[in-house]
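Notes on consecutive records. When two proteins share a document, each keeps its own sequence and its own token line. Never mix them. Below: protein one.
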Amino acid sequence: MGRQFYFIFNFAYLLSRFKEIHLVDLDEQAVHDGILRQGLNDTNNIFVHGTIDLTGSLPFLCKLHQELELTEGEAKDFIQEAILPLKLNINEPFEIVASICILTQLIDTVIGALGNTHPYLFDFILKIRNHHLSQLISLVEPGGWGFLITDVVSSDSFTEMANISEENFLEIMKHLIANQNFFHGVNPYRINSVLSSNLLASTAQILHVWRWNFGSRIYAVYGIGVQKKTLSEIIAIKI
């Protein structure tokens, strides 16, 4: 979950619906600050798992940033091996797992480390993105649901954002995607395709498109739901 959402997300409502909430982030202090601000710091069923690199690749990004003279073959091998398997050990799997506006932050980490003109930037962005989508599904229990919520474009590049009615957002998003006006790596139709093609996924679909207003900037946001196959279906795949 992105840092700002720890302050506005309604954890009290979630606690009325779920037995436990597990929050995973690199910035552990931001999580605790958000929980404290909502007066829930003494709650026993919110679990914080901090200092976790969800990219799985921060050491490799630093190295790749310094290795601009790699041959094309060396770079491809490097990117292929760059992402470490993520073992959270946080009592997973879960009935529901949600990635809330974290994907663009992971991608921004890559851009910040490599720069916009790095020759292997987009290879690494796709690697990070697909790793995150696979990670999302892997944390879900058989038959459970994963939800990806991500910002796709802001009012910086689409200045009419505030004037569009939300019932027209889906059509507007299709237009923006067709015109390549969206953040790197978050094309919703491509992401839906990647999730649908995962062998453990039963179904995936774009659920909703809406607007989040953060004052100086407005974001178009979409949600995708993916249901994991049941245990019997997963066993059938392995057989």
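Protein two starts on the next line and is unrelated to protein one.
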Amino acid sequence: MNMHERQVKDRTRTAIQAPIGRPKCVIYLKDRKEHRTAWFSSQERAQQALEIMQAKYGTKNAIIYLD
């Protein structure tokens, strides 16, 4: 593989990869103790987790935390 082919391959690979955003998790209170979910890379997944935790533990007891 010559240098030109390698550069084309690298550009294609990096164009396909999704951009890495700020990691997010949901912090919630359970029995007066702070807990957190796994880290999410997409805002949509973090929002889904937030809605689930708010339904389970109350709207004031869950937030999205950005690192």
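For the record: The first strand starts at residue 24 and ends at 30.
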